[in-house]
DNA sequence: AAATAAAATTAGATATATCTAAAAAATAAT
DNA sequence: ATTATTTTTTAGATATATCTAATTTTATTT
């Protein structure tokens, strides 16, 4: 099954939207995600349905098929491998890579991706902390680590808190930490285990070991 | 000035054909080079002329403009840098890189090319021995001579092949000739123009004039 | 349940890139 | 200098991907 670049982009969008717990994805949602018009989406859905990568019932939104999911994951794999390449090898900042990876992901060459994967030492996560599917589309469960257990200079993304009491969440809010925040360990104080972290590459915050051990991140 | 991938490919073809000593390049020549139909070429020439990258007088062929030449050289630069990447970093064989580089060359990101160039240590020649234009389009060309035109006992180094089809590259591989090989002309048969050459001071190989004329060397 | 609002689709355009078949222009041959 | 041949261009299709405007279908409100 061969998809055009546009089809790959739509399928990726549908995959991402499906992944947010919806039972089906609407035309308008896809249009918003793709920054395009609903009319264009309708046209494309017909094409994707013909290729059997989505199930499409007019006026009732779409579901991705197993074949579609496999293809979407392959595109995501390519995108994230290229992002690793751009950051690790070409010294791009991690917020500069998306647009270029968006182009590179459509290069059609299984051998290229296989070799790139090896060259990058089979990375499991991209620079944003998102997992890289393997060549079969399998995604590794994200190993979580408490902030106080991360090494200095290690970057990651906050994905959960152990203590989800209102008090703790208020604290999170107050210091500007939140689920999804990109973090980097700036310093660790040996004496008391407190840590200094950089949030979203701009805000530096201090927290006690106790607090840090309640915040879970995935490492980049 | 922004060109589409198709326009870049046509412009590159016109540049290459121009470089063969013609005063102007014909529609048929371009169609042959691009493996497309003359009618398609006519359409594209109109577009390229509108963008002022070629001078086009109907029925009389085209010339590339200075601006067109600059753009063609930029595309060639990207293509050849990617080829170096594929061979040096991803361990592609030098005869496997063309098709992939043909896709990669159309990625639009000046920063990417700048960084790639640095990562590859500013290479001056691609794996086929062809020079890589700098960012201003300047090319450091080496005077090259076909093996069948070298004198007996003349020594040199293979730097490029004219015909880089997979079939020819496989042949090269099979007989033990390769880009970078040291060669010396042992004998030339006047009757059919075939030549005998010594490769790397040990292996003697025999090749027809046809083959020899496709292999380019710099003379020592 | 009828009226209204929202969402989705179709109809009809535009732009790119290609093709075949027909026409026009340039070149070659008698 | 006509005629024939080759080359090139145009006219008209097809396919992709997008748009606006109009229409249809579904969902919501009264």
List strands and helices in order, with pairings.
The structure is a homodimer of 220-residue chains.
Chain A: H1 5-18, H2 27-34, H3 38-50, E1 54-56, E2 62-64, H4 66-89, H5 98-104, H6 110-119, E3 144-146, E4 155-161, H7 166-175, E5 182-188, E6 195-199, E7 203-207, H8 209-212, E8 215-219
Antiparallel strand pairs in A: 1-2, 3-8, 4-5, 4-8, 5-6, 6-7
Chain A binds a DNA duplex (30 and 30 nucleotides) through residues 4, 6, 26-28, 36-44, 46-47, 58-60.
Short descriptors:
homodimer, 6-stranded antiparallel sheet, 220 residues, globular, Arc Repressor Mutant, subunit A, 8 strands, DNA-binding, alpha+beta, 17% strand, SH3 type barrels
* Fraction of residues in helix of chain A: 40-55%
For the largest interface, the chains and their residue counts are: A-B, 18 and 18 residues
The chain-level structural class of chain A is alpha+beta
Low-confidence regions of chain A? none
Calculate the terminal CA-CA distance of chain A, rounded to whole Å: 32 Å
What percentage of amino acids of chain A are in beta strands?
15-25%
Tell me the number of helical segments of chain A per DSSP (H or I, 4 or more residues long).
8
């Amino acid at each position: 099954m061969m998809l055009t670049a546009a089809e790959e982009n739509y399928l990726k969008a549908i995959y991402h939207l499906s992944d947010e717990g919806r039972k089906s994805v609407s035309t308008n949602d896809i249009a918003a995600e793709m920054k395009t018009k609903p009319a264009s989406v309708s046209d494309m859905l017909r094409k994707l349905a013909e290729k059997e990568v989505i199930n499409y019932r007019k006026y009732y939104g779409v579901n991705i098929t197993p074949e579609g999911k496999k293809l979407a994951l392959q595109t995501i794999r390519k995108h994230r491998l290229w992002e690793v390449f751009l950051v690790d090898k070409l010294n791009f900042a991690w917020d500069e890579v998306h647009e270029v990876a968006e182009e590179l992901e459509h290069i059609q060459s299984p051998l290229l991706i296989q070799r790139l994967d090896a060259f990058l030492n089979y990375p499991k996560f991209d620079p944003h902390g998102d997992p890289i599917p393997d060549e079969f589309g399998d995604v590794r469960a994200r190993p979580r680590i408490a902030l106080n257990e991360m090494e200095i200079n290690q970057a990651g993304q906050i994905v959960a808190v152990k203590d989800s009491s209102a008090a703790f969440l208020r604290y999170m809010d107050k210091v500007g930490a939140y689920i999804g925040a990109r973090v980097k360990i700036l310093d660790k104080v040996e004496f008391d285990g407190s840590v200094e972290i950089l949030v979203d590459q701009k805000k530096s915050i201090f927290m006690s070991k106790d607090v840090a051990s309640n915040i879970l991140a995935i490492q980049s």
